[in-house]
Amino acid sequence: MRIGIVGLGYVGLTLAIVAADCGMEVFGTEVNPEIKSCLKKNRAHFHEVGLNELIEKHNGKKFFCVESFSADKNFDAFIVTVGTPLQKNSKTPNFDAITSAINSIANVYDGKQLVILRSTVSVGTTRKIILPLLEKISGKSAEKIFVAMCPERTLEGKAIQELKNLPQIISGNNQQALGIAHKIFSKITPNIIKAESLEEAELAKLYCNTYRDMNFAIGNAFCLAAQSFGVNGAKVISLANKDYSRSKIALPGFVAGPCLEKDAYLLTNNMPDSESKNFMLTARRISDSLEDAVVDFVVKKLQGGGGDFIRLGF
Q: Could you point out which of 43, 166, 205, 292 has its C-alpha 20 to 30 Å from the C-alpha of 89?
């Protein structure tokens, strides 16, 4: 099989190299000159166990970093792996990178290839944004083109191992799309889970990250609760967890990274106002607030004011 991957960041590059290692011919495009420069030297622009060895093995043989996809080659699928950042002020998703990625395949896409969205997006993005854009590019109706949502769920540092062992969630806008997605990912892992809709697959990824984010937020909330009683929150959490298998409360601290700090906002983006929406956003805001709390503490200390590290759980 021959696939094209748009975006060779962490998600795209690890998938591309593992797919090549599993026998597929992979072409990848990337706009970042630093990433392209690293690949010319047979290395990744980030650390990932075993990745550089596989790049050296397959670069120029099964894997090719190209400026654009050639119309002379027949592709089975294109996989979009670019990020979905948030608008700075509104905390709503910015789809510019994704729509640009879709437009970048316009010269080779004719509606016959499967287009897989692997980016983390708000619910409805695949059906309401990607599908209409592909209709416009191909001139075909939604029923006659093939789109899949197959979210990435690997852990940094273990991506090579996890891509081949973790269950892969796949979905499609029709049975043909689902079948092609299954054919591609079953070459990488025998563990395939079929979602019944594009929206189910979108939600599953958002749930994974938001669940972890909320677990960390609970630790921060518990710490603040303890502090309201004049007790060291981190110490109480450690006490509650010690040798007690049913208690795995996260220790307090900053929660960030490219996923956890935004996915709760992606999940709630199209959600009607409800208690569950408020619950998830409140958890995210608790962790968001820690940065300001630390800055406020440091400023007061420098100004000779009061305050104690116990207020922040340290």
A: 205
Order of strands, sheet of 114-117, starting from the edge strand that comes earlier in the sequence: 63-66, 25-29, 2-6, 77-80, 114-117, 146-149
Task: Please give the Cα distance from 45 to 8 (Å, whole number).
Answer: 10
The residue among 211, 159, 166 whose CA lies nearest residue 193 is 166
Q: How far apart are CA 235 and CA 240, in angstroms?
A: 9
Residue that has been written with the tokens 């043989």 in this structure: 61
The 3-state secondary structure of 154-218 reads: CCCCCHHHHHHHCCEEECCCCHHHHHHHHHHHCCCCCCEEECCCHHHHHHHHHHHHHHHHHHHHH
Q: Is 50 left (phi over 0), alpha (psi -120 to 50) or beta?
A: left
For residue range 213-262, list pLDDT tens digits in order. 999 999 999 999 998 999 999 999 999 999 999 999 999 999 877 889 99
In sequence order, which residues have a C-beta less than 8 Å from that of residue 160 and are 6 or more positions away? 14, 17, 18, 48, 49, 50, 51, 54
- Asked if 191 and 165 count as a contact pair (C-beta separation under 8 A), the reply is yes
The residue with tokens 């990488």 is 188
